[in-house]
Amino acid sequence: MKESEFYDPTKETMPVEERERFLNEQLREIVNYAYHNAPAVKEKMDSVGVAPSQIVTVGDLEKIPITRKDDFSELQKLNPPFGGFLGVPEIKEIYVSPGPIYEPEIPNAQYVAAAKALYATGFRKGDRAMVTVSFHMVPAGQHFAGAMEKLGITMIPTGVGNTEIQLQIMRDLKVSGYAGTPSFLMTLIKKAEELGYNFRQDFELRRALVGAEMLPESLRRTFEQDYDIRTQQIYTTAELLLLGYECSQKSGWHIPEEVLIEIVDHETGKQLAPGEVGAIVATPFNKIFPLIRYGTGDLSSINVELCPCGRTSPRLTGLLGRVGEEVKVRGMFVHPRQVKEVMAKLNQIAQFQVKVGRHKHRDVITINLELKDETVDKQQLTNDLAKAFQDVCRVKADEIEFVTRGTIPEEHKVIVDERIWE
C-alpha cells in the first residue's frame, strides 16, 4: 500500500467548505476563550465595543484591532511578563526572544503543525535528524524536538556552531535529516569539502527543513541537484511559531490547521482578496497564549487555488518584504521585492527605479531604466516589462523611460514616492 503523503490526512485534505466551517468554529472558540481568560484580549475588544458573540466568521475579525509585533515588547513591559495575553493560570516553560519578548510554553497544536511540515518534507519514523537551531532561551529548538518526537524521529540537538564536530556527528550517526537555516547547511557542506569529503557520497543526509532566513531558488537547486538533499521551507515567528510550510510542489507555504491567517491592508486592517499583497495577521488556536489578530510585520499574499499535492489549505506565496517598505498605488501595495522579481526576468536591464507621482488626482507610475546595451529592441523590452510588471505587481505602469547610464545612483531606493498630498 502506498504511504500517505500527509501526517493528518483528514484535516490536511478536508473539502474546502468543511475547512471553512472548521476554521470558523475554531475561531469562535478561541475568541470566546481569549476574551474571558486573557485580559489584554478583553481590553482591546472592549475598547472598540466588540463582544465575542459578534465574531462568527473569519470576516468578522476585521472588527478586532490588530496587535502589532513592533508594539509587543512595549506591551509586555507595561504588563509584565506576557502583556496580559497569558490564557492559563500555570505554565511549565518560559522562552525569551530578542526584544526581549517573553513566550510561555509551546502548545501541543504547534508540535502538530511542525510535525506536518517535517512529514511533508519526507521525514519519517526511524530517521535521525540534527536540529541546528538554538535551544538556548528561544523556543525554536524545542519546537522541532517536540514535533520529531511525534513522528518517532531520533533527534540530535546539536544547536548552532561547531561545524567540524557537527560533521563528525552527522557522519558517525548516519544522520538523514536536517532542521535549521539554509546558510548553516551550506556551511556544513563546504566545511566537509574542505576536509576532503565528497558530501553526496560520504554522508547520508537526504532531507532538510529550513527556515529563519530566505532560501534562494539557486541555493535550493544546489542542495537538491548537487547534494541530493530534498529541501523545503517553513515560515515561523518567535511568538507564533509555525505559520506555513512547503509541500513537495514547493509552490507556496501551506497554512496549517492550527492557525488562521489573514492578509490585510496594514493601514486599515481590512482583509485583502487572494493574490493581493498585504500584511500577515495571525490568530493561533492557542489557549495558552491567545494572540488574537497578531501582526507579524511581514508582507505576503494568499493563493487559494488547490495544490496538486492534495492539501486543501490556502498557501502563503512567500515573504514579500516588511511592512513600511511598500508603497500603496491605486489601492494596491507595491513592494521593492516585487519590482526586483520583475526586473530579474529581463536581463537587458542594468539599473532600474520606479517613481510614483500624482497627476490630475491619479497615481502615475514611471519606470526608469538604464540598459546594458543600447542596441536592444526598446519597444519589445517596453512591452515585455509592462506585461511582467502588471502580472507581478497587479498594477499598470504608465510610463517606461530609458535614461543614460549613470542617471540612477548606485545606492538608490527601488521605489520613490514623489506624490505631494495637498
How much helix is in the residues?
Answer: 25-40%
Tell me the CATH topology of the domain at 328-417: GMP Synthetase, Chain A, domain 3
Distance between the termini: 69 Å
- Runs in which pLDDT lies below 50 for 5 or more consecutive residues are none
Which overall shape is indicated by the principal axes computed on the Cα atoms?
globular
Order of strands in the sheet with the most strands? 5-4-6-7-8-9
Number of helices: 12
Give me the secondary-structure category: alpha/beta
Report the biggest beta sheet as strand number plus sense, adding barrel if it closes.
6 strands, mixed
Strand content: 15-25%
Q: So what's the CATH class of the domain at 328-417?
A: Alpha Beta
Question: In angstroms, what is the radius of gyration?
Answer: 23 Å
How many beta-strand elements? 21
Annotated CATH homologous superfamily of the domain at 328-417: ANL, C-terminal domain
Mean pLDDT: 94
Instruction: Give me the CATH architecture of the domain at 328-417, please.
Output: 2-Layer Sandwich
Topology:
Layout: H1 9-12, H2 16-37, H3 39-46, E1 67-68, H4 69-78, E2 94-97, E3 101-104, H5 108-120, E4 128-131, H6 140-151, E5 154-156, H7 163-172, E6 177-180, H8 182-194, H9 199-202, E7 207-210, H10 217-227, E8 230-237, E9 241-245, E10 253-254, E11 259-264, E12 278-284, E13 294-300, E14 302-303, E15 315-316, E16 327-329, E17 332-334, H11 336-344, E18 349-359, E19 362-371, H12 378-393, E20 399-402, E21 415-417
Parallel strand pairs: 1-13, 4-5, 4-6, 6-7, 7-8, 18-21, 19-20
Antiparallel strand pairs: 2-3, 8-9, 10-15, 11-12, 12-13, 14-15, 16-17, 18-19
